[in-house]
Each structure stands twice: as structure tokens, then as C-alpha cells.
Amino acid sequence: MSKPFLGVMMLAKDEEDTILQSLESTRSVADEWIVVDTGSRDRTAEVARSFGARVIHVPWEDDFSKARNAGLAHVRAEWVLWLDADEELRDADSSWLEVLRHTEAKSFWLDVENLLGPSMDDRLIHRVIRLFRREPGVYFQGRIHEQIVWVKEGFSESTQAVAAPWRIVHHGYRPEIIARRDKVRRNLRLLRLALRDHPRHPFYTYQVGVTWCQAGRLDRAALWLSRAASLTPLQAPYRPTLFRDLGMVWLALGKFRDVELTLRPELERYPEYADLFVIFADALRAQGLREEALKAYLQAAACPPPGAHVGSAGINSFRPLHAAAQLCLDLGRLQEAEQSVRQALAARPGWEPALETLAEILAARDVPEGDLVKSLASCAGTPPDQRSLVRALLHIGAYGEVIGLLDSEDTSLGSENRPLRVQCLVALGQWREACRIVELSIHSGDRPVPLSEEEIMDYALARWAQDQSLDRRLELPPVYQSIDARLMGSPASPDTQSHAAIGPDILRPLIQRAVQHRLIPLAEDLAALHSNGMDLFLAKTLYREGWVYLAADRLLRLLTRRELDAEGLFLLGEMLYDKGHWDQAAELFEQSAGLGFSRARPAAAAAALQSAKRMLEEAEALRPKRGGFAEERRAVGRALELLDGIGWHTHWRGRTRRNRHESAADLPLHDRQE
User: Fold this and answer.
1) Record's superkingdom (predicted)?
2) What angle do CA 347, 349, 354 make, to 5 degrees?
């Protein structure tokens, strides 16, 4: 029998659901497969054998290297590719095997893409030696997070390894998989054992911090990562990634100044590491330092791909460019914002967040909606990603344009077509047509498509907007029949839930949906069905949706009844602030802050600074010859710019921005019967 050329070696335990897919991904390039089973209780070994792999049973001894070295002893092939059973090999072109046959290299890097969520944009990419020449003196080292070492040569993998064109996709870091497999508990146990054997080991200390981060314990993660940062030598290859992770944890904990002070010198050491620039920019932005943050985002976009460093997908292209566009939009610099977001979409066509931002910019520029759709479609990929395009149009309330897309012959939205059409028709006030579509789809055909929760809400709102009861032939949730009876003043049928079952959990999404569809009186009627906090919820919803004046009356009434909570006090204070009533606004902000509403503290400071600025202006007008007023005014103005950059004030985007600028008198309100 001829000697195999490329062997795949993997560890597996209870991986019957994934191991076949992993092995299949290597079929075109490998001619030997060794599976090291460390104690499976399912069909893992059977599945591996059915593929053609040789299964080696090895007892688990809390040591990954020991298990891998046991498998390595059984490999006969000249080259070894090592994988885990939750990984897949991608771009595996067998023609590249000829390179391996003639290369003098001893090992190759592969890019490993760790999937963190359902989208391929949710990826963390790092480069690891996964392909190496099988020869004496090569073995795995490390109880956990093991690495290949060459005993005889003092071999440095960072300088000797060569990049391979293949890549690996790893599914095991998705949050639900980590939780299901209890990886956190296992890894912490192994890391404690490793630190027992090697106290103050910087890499193991670092990995404890990473593991606590995966567990959601950011306080502990920050402690261990900080400790690792103090232990890790400057030349350590993982040091840049350590500071990336420390910066991200501190950012999540709100320690923005710590991020800034820690990363500023690291940017000089690693001027091509885009992740550090983005984290640094996020920290500056959170402190209101918008111009410096903008500069850092653009520096990130100019960095090369992460290479040997761990990096997020798009971290040197569409992500920082989109962040820069949002900053420019906040600053009112629409031309710069559009330039940056178009660059982001050129790097990642159809990316939904950027497409929504472009739609918002074009709407702010009052671009005609027909031209707006064409412009968005040109940035939505080839062919255009219709889902992203539709969501961008919904974001700015361009419902008629969405219906136009749904009517086009090349629409590919399938089962999403009907609920989207119904949503847009209700938003446009075409309630009868919306109801007709729903009822026709339910009553016709042997297998009608069931209604989604959003479609049920839209249908019910459209019927009630016409003062019509729900069609009892539709099998709607019983609570809707109960609401219908209350709104229409008719007795509930015997099989519906009691009126007491109409609680806040069902009313809140209905009220929110009604306000989004501009059905304000109907939202009021729904709020009246429950006395516990629904008036306040309606007022907040109106405010967030841009109907500020309608919200103001309700918030003032609630204030006189002393029924405002911390957020309600803040929103009312924000209205007074925008009207220039800074002293009254400051009083409400202070009350809100005292109740624990975090945005109220910078708001109170801004109101106090506005009052100080006004007093300085008045003093300067009374005593124009006295010096110093102008400089003090400028200092106050700079402080206000910083506070404004923190983002304490409500921002209305897209559809809600349009509502903000419309008069309440222009609302297409329907009449309600007495």
C-alpha cells in the first residue's frame, strides 16, 4: 500500500451531528483520516468509520496535547492537517497539493473563521498553523490552546510558516454552542491546571480572561486580561490581540477613558492593526471626542487585513467606514457621510446597516424617492439584495416604494411578500386593501400560509382603524377577540379569554405598531384598555417615534399626577431643553438622574452649561468693554460639544426623523365613533 500524502487528524467527543460534515469537507485533498475519540457516548466513532476514517480511542486526561499527540503517532501521511469536528475546510482545491509536493516549507498558516452569529459578517478571523510536515521532533504542546512545536530546531512558527490558500470555518464559538457544550466550565478547569503547573504564565492568564468573557463575566475578564497585559512580554505574538480583547471588555464596561489611555501607545506599536483603531475610536466617540474618533475610524479603514492578528470581518473596511458615515451624519456633514457610506457599501455590497444609513442620508438630502430607490439598488449587490433594500426603505418610511418593489417581476422575497405588502398598505392608510389580502389568503387554497405575529397585528389594526370587528372566521389568538369586543363594544364570545387577560404584554406591541402606522387615536383606545402604566408607555412611544408634541401633552399630564418614572422625567426635560427652558430642564434631569437614569447626568450638565452660556452672553452685552467673556463663552461651547458628542440626546432616524419634522395637524387621523 502506498504511503498517504495528506492526512487529516481530529479530536472528537460526542460529535455525531457535525463530524461527517467536517470529514466531507476534506475529501478532495486528503487520503488518510485519523479520528481520536476521547470518550464519545453517541455514534461519533460509527459515523467516522462509515466515512473511511480510522478511529483511535484515547482516554481523556484533561490535556488536549496529550490526546492530539496520541493521534499523531498513528498518522502515516507526509503532511498533517489538524481539525476539530466542529470545523470545515473551505476553498480546498486539490491542485494546490502540487505545491506541497515540491515545497521546502515545514508548515502552513490557515485562516480560521470563527462564526459568532448567524451572519457571515459575524466572524472573528485569526491565522493558525494547521498544516505541517510529519517528521520526527514535531509534536503538540500545551494542556489547552495547544500549539505545534519543533523540538530540534528552536523553530519559530511566526517566521517559518507560509500562508496556505485554504481556510477553516469554525462553528464552535457561537454562543448557543458554547452554552450547550459547557465549554466555559471545561476550559476554566484546564486553565487552572495549566496555571498550577506554570504559575503566572502570561498566555494561560490571558486565556482565563478570554474564557470569562465568553461566560459573560466581564468584570472577571477585565481583571485577568489586565493581569495578562502586565505579564506579557512585548515580543509575544499574541500581545496585540490581548490588548484588543482588553479594550473590548473595558469598552463594554463603560471604561472609555481607560480604553483611550491604554490603547493610545499600542497604536504606535501596532499601526496596522485595524481592530485597535476601531476600539480606540469607539472609546473616543463615547466620550464625545467625535473629530478624533472620526480620524481613528478612517485610519482603521486604511489598515491592511489583520494577517497574523485576530480580526473581525470587515474591520479594516466596511465597519469603520460605516461608523465614520454615522459620525458625519450626526455632525450634519451629509456629503462626507454619503462618501464614507458608499465606500462601505463598495466593500460590502448590500450590507444592511450601511444601506439603511445611506437611505437616511438620501432622505435628509430630500432626494426624490424614485432616484433614492435607484441609488440604493446600485449599492445593494448584484443582483440587488432585495431584503436589505426593502428594510432600508422601511427604515425611512418609503412604503410606496416597497410596494413597487414587491410588484416587480424579479422579486425574490417569496413568503415574505404578503406580510410586507400588508404592513406597507396599513402604513399608507389603505386598510381595506390590507384586510382583503389577508382574508383572501386565509379563505382560499387548501394550505393557506399561516399569519405571522406582525401580520396578525397589522390586520387587526387595519380592521379596528375602519371601526370594524375582526373576521371571526380567521383563527386569531383568543386575546385578540377579547380586545376586539372591548374596542367595538360588543360582547365577547364564550370561547374567548376574559377581559382581565388583556395585559400589558399584549398591548405594548399593539400600541407601538399602531403609533408606527400613525394610528394615534387607535393607540389611545388600546392604552385605555389597561390602567397600569399604559398612558406612560404611549407617551414614550409617541416621543420615540418622533411625535414630540403629541407626547408632550401626555407627559405633562402624567407629571401633574406624579406618574412619571425616571425615563419620563428625562424625556420631558429633553423637550424643555430643546425649547431653551434650561433651568426647568435641569431640574427634571436631576430628578431623573436621582432615580438612576444614566443619560440624565450629562443632560443635566448640558442644561447647566446652556444657562451659563446665556448668562455670559447677557453679561457681555451689558459690559462689552470688559474682556474675558468671549473666551469663557468659547470654553463653555467646547464643553457643550463634548457633551453633545456623548449622545445623551434622543436621535430620530429615518422614519421617526420625518415624523419629528411634521406637524401633528398633518396626521392622517381616522375618525372614531362616539
Assistant:
1) Bacteria
2) 85
**Which helix (H) or strand (E) element contains residue 35?**
strand 32-37
DSSP 60: -
> For residues 311 and 305, is the Cβ–Cβ distance under 8 A?
yes
Q: What are the extents of the domains in the chain?
A: 6-173
pLDDT value of position 511: 98
pLDDT single digits (tens) 118-172: 777 888 999 999 999 999 999 999 999 999 998 765 554 444 789 999 999 999 8
Range list of β-strands (E), 134-225: 138-141, 147-150, 162-170
Q: Is the pLDDT of residue 493 over 70?
A: no
For 595, half-sphere exposure in the C-beta direction (CA atoms, 13 angstrom radius) is 14
| Per-residue buried b or exposed e for 37-67, using 16+ beta carbons within 10 Å of the residue's own CB | bbebeeebbebbeeeebbbbebeeeebbbbb
Burial of 104 (0-12, 13-18, 19+ CB in 10 A): exposed
Residue 382: Cβ-neighbour burial (10 angstroms; 0-12, 13-18, 19+): exposed
Cβ 468 vs Cβ 490: under 8 Å: no
319, 353 contact by CB (below 8 A): no
Q: What are the CA-CA distances from residue 406 to residues 234, 396, 400, 413, 552 (Å)?
A: 57, 17, 10, 8, 38
- Residue-wise DSSP of 212-241: HHHTT-HHHHHHHHHHHHHHS-TT-TTHHH
Q: What CA–CA distance (Å, rounded) separates 414 from 93?
A: 35
Query: For residue 491, what pLDDT band results from cuts at 50, 70 and 90?
Result: low
Residue 427 and residue 397 in contact, taking contact as beta carbons nearer than 8 Å: yes
Going by the DSSP 8-state scheme, the letter that residue 151 receives in this structure is T
E strands of 69-155, at which residues?
79-84, 87-90, 107-115, 123-133, 138-141, 147-150
Q: 270-290, pLDDT tens digit by residue?
A: 999 999 999 999 999 999 999
Pairing of strands 147-150, 79-84: unpaired
Q: pLDDT digits over 191-240, tens only? A: 999 999 999 999 999 999 999 998 999 999 999 999 999 999 999 999 99
Distance CA 399, CA 352 (A): 17
Of 436, 523, 505, 497, which Cα lies nearest the Cα of 485? Answer: 497
Strand partners, 450: none
Is the omega angle on the peptide bond into residue 265 within 30 degrees of 0, that is, cis? no
What number of helices (H) and strands (E) belong to the chain?
Answer: 32, 11
Report field, pTM of the whole predicted structure over 0.85: yes
Strand ranges (DSSP E) for 552-591?
Answer: none
- With residues binned 3-state (H G I as helix, E B as strand, rest as coil), the percentages for the chain, rounded to 5, are 55, 10, 35
The CATH number given to 6-173 is 3.90.550.10
Task: For 584-601, give the DSSP string.
Answer: HHHHHHHHHHHTT-TTHH
- Residue where the block lists cell 377579547: 482
Which of 65, 11, 44 shows the shortest CA–CA distance to 190? 65
CB 89 within 8 A of CB 27: no
Torsion angle in degrees (nearest 10) through CA of 266, 270, 273, 274 = 50
